[in-house]
Amino acid sequence: MGFRAIVTLASPPSAEAEHHHQLHHHHPLHSHHQHFFRPTRFIIYIGVAVAIVVVLLVTAIVFFFSSRRHKSTKSIRSKASTVSQRYGGFSHRNMSNNASPDMANCLYMGIVGPPSLSKFRGGQVFTYKELEVATDSFNPENVIGNGGFGLVYRGVLSDGTVAAIKMLNREGKQGEREFRVEVDLLSRLHSPYLVQLLGYCADQHHRLLVFEFMPNGSLQNHLHPSNKKYQLLNWGTRLRIALDCAKGLEFLHEHSNQPVIHRDFKCSNILLDHNFRAKVSDFGLAKMGSDKINGQVTTRVLGTTGYVAPEYASSGKVTTKSDVYCYGVVLLELITGRVPVDSRRPPGEQVLVSWALPRLTNREKVMEMVDPVLDGQFSKKELIQVAAIAAVCVQSEADYRPFMTDVVQSLIPLVKSLSTSVPSTPYKFQHRKVPSVS
Question: Which residue windows are transmembrane per the record (predicted)?
Fold first, then answer.
């Protein structure tokens, strides 16, 4: 309206002048809007462009690192695939470890685990006097085991609970460390496949651990008995024990807050309940780990001859795959009935893994390797599959070994399909015939 008034008051311009005026004299209001909106739009466009570049850059970075992680894992899986195709077939992943327990938390039940595992269920602090009464003054007749930690006694607690009471050797710092590690770990780790810690005693200089009682002793007692009182294990029972142990290690490696490396998994540390169901025990040498790919712990080499993984023995570097190797040795013991190292055997047969590994891919030779006390009472198909699992577990290169989850998933169908003709309880005869050794 203002613009029209200004034009009316002025002298009427010619058409050419009016045209010239329209070309060279812009509307002041229009000019103001142009100068106001152009910079604003320019800033908006620049902002949008920068945002897009930032998003693309972040996406590229994320893709780059995820691609590197994928390639690393894929490389390991491709190696494992070569072995698994040869021996039986698994899916493979990778995992690692490192840490150490807090010593103050060990003695006072500090809670450092995840919420679901943080409660020390049923845990109790015992006095030395209580455990002395429970074991009849540590009567030698109540001794049920003797290991590196010390003697293990059968005892009856004040509430009538039968327990296994483990007494620490007073000499040396190693026993003290093992005591603290076991209390720390087992106060937070709860699984039906791990022996339960009922409590402990740290009364003055006394150090004792109180565990649930496993009436059928250790797997070693039944596979390699030193006397005639132990029952032999049939094929079905051996398969169930293999699965129970695998689930125990799977829990430690993959279902605890941090991976736990057992470091001393062997037949004597596998205990059997009244139904011959197996549980993993003895965590004195255990190490905590991290979730880093290819992560490892460098530590002093500890363990038992015949079970120690090659890379651990040579370099002191231990991972969860070191436990997998130990598990493979136990599988070979379940299959063959042989001990890991036997100097009484002929050259070439003294080390179980070295002797067995070349034979595990030959079906006829696998049949010849079977523990003679089984007397042919097993499924040939199941035997071949278990032999394949053992073969990949004891590979000399750690990356070729499967994860315990893979082992569990491979064993579950075998246990489910156990033939009804194979009895589910151990053999009832009381002694085994040991093949003569030249």
Answer: 41-65
Which residues are CB-neighbours of 112 under 8 A, at least 6 positions away?
Answer: 102, 105, 118, 188, 257
Task: Name the catalytic one among 244, 264, 282, 371.
Answer: 264
What is the mean pLDDT, run by run of 10 residues, along the chain of 438 residues? 40 47 45 52 76 77 60 47 51 38 33 34 82 96 84 96 89 72 87 95 92 95 84 94 98 92 94 96 83 52 80 88 96 97 94 95 93 94 96 95 97 84 47 39
The backbone region for 373, taken as left when phi is positive above 0, alpha when psi lies in -120 to 50, beta otherwise, is alpha
Tell me how many degrees the CA angle 288-293-299 measures, rounded to the nearest 5.
Answer: 40
Helix, strand, coil distribution of the chain in percent, nearest 5: 50, 10, 40
Is 381 labelled as part of a ligand binding site? Answer: no
Pairing of strands 124-125, 197-201: parallel
Question: How far apart, in Å, are the Cα atoms of 377 and each of 60, 288, 336, 368?
Answer: 59, 41, 13, 14
Is 342 assigned a catalytic role? no
Neighbours of 354 (CB within 10 A): 12
Q: Pick the closest to residue 274 from 432, 80, 425, 62 (CA basis).
A: 425
